[in-house]
Amino acid sequence: MKVVCFVCSLVVALLPATGSTAISAIASASSQARLDRCARRLIDPVSWQPSNRDNWNLTLKDSRSHGTLLYYGAVHARPPGDPQYTDIQSEFAKIKPQLVFFEGPWVAPQGINLYQAELRGESDFLQLIARRSGVQARSLDADEPNVFRHLIDKFGPERVEIFFVLRSVAQQTALKNVHDYDAHVRQTESFIEYESTVYSDIGIAPPAANLTQFAQLFEKYWPGKQWAAADIAWFSPLAVASDSPEAAEFHAINREENMLRNREMYYLLGRELIMGQKVLAVVGRNHVPLQAPALACLVR
């Protein structure tokens, strides 16, 4: 009898945990189905043209989970003191987020001040104000290795490395963070080193491991052109009739990368929203209208 009672007690004790696990699994499957269904509303950047009707900022509330998302569309390469930084800080204070998402894979250095963060751009600025408030900051680009693999498969390893290095160079030039040629060289070498690490991490030999090799690589595709003259306008998904050959090439890579990243960002933010989190995310503003229909679908 005692044995029977012990077994019965064990079964009864296990039932709530088993039921809880089953309910959790059902809820998880339901949330995934909801995310997958609404993902069909993501807009393809190839077919999108910006207009004055676009909303660069998005605020959503989920009545079921009580989650909130404030999605701030930033303009890249704003100098220190730009009103955009005040706007981001105001939005942070307004929503009091439990979690923030920043664009890019880089973690802001420890010990920087607000001016230094603004000098580095909106991603570092957001990380710094979150850090000071004890709020967790996560990257919107957590799936970067898979994005690289896809782009390399489609465009080749050489063109993809040129694209990522030159985009970083152009962004820093636009931020006026480069004051002389030697600093320009050092900064570019650091970008090449970073991209080489990414390539190595996914098991692909980097096409250019130093600045000399990189310059030769650029010359191979665009003879007579200067890599240091890369223009930030080349690195948007939107092509224009006056594009130079290198700009047209980079627009194509950017559109493909944009589509992959929009999907990843949507799933990251959407999952937190329907789980009931209060989230502030700051991203390059073109991403917002492309993801907005899918994110809005989640809260209907």
Polypeptide structure, described:
- α2 runs parallel beside α4 (122-132) and α5 packs across α6.
- This protein is an alpha/beta fold and 300 residues long.
- It has helices spanning 2-39, 83-95, 114-120, 122-132, 144-155, 157-174, 181-201, 211-221, 245-274, 287-298, and strands at 57-61, 68-74, 99-102, 136-139, 278-284.
- The chain has one domain.
- Helix content is 58%, strand content 9%.
- Residues 1-15 have low confidence and may be disordered.
- It is built from ten helices and five strands.
- It is globular.
- Strands 1-2-5-3-4 form a five-stranded mixed sheet, sandwiched between helices.
- A hairpin with a 6-residue loop joins β1 (57-61) and β2.
Structural class: alpha/beta
Number of strands: 5
Low-confidence stretches: 1-15
Mean pLDDT over the residues: 86
Largest sheet descriptor: 5 strands, mixed
The total domain count is 1
Radius of gyration: 23 Å
Q: Work out the strand percent.
A: 5-15%
Order of helices and strands: HEEHEHHEHHHHHEH
Could you tell me how far the N terminus lies from the C terminus, measured between alpha carbons in angstroms? 55 Å
Bin the helical content.
55-70%
Q: Widest sheet: strand order?
A: 1-2-5-3-4
Tally of separate helices: 10
The shape is globular
List the helices and strands and how they pair.
Layout: H1 2-39, E1 57-61, E2 68-74, H2 83-95, E3 99-102, H3 114-120, H4 122-132, E4 136-139, H5 144-155, H6 157-174, H7 181-201, H8 211-221, H9 245-274, E5 278-284, H10 287-298
Helix pairs in contact: 1-9, 1-10, 2-4, 3-4, 5-6, 5-9, 6-7, 9-10
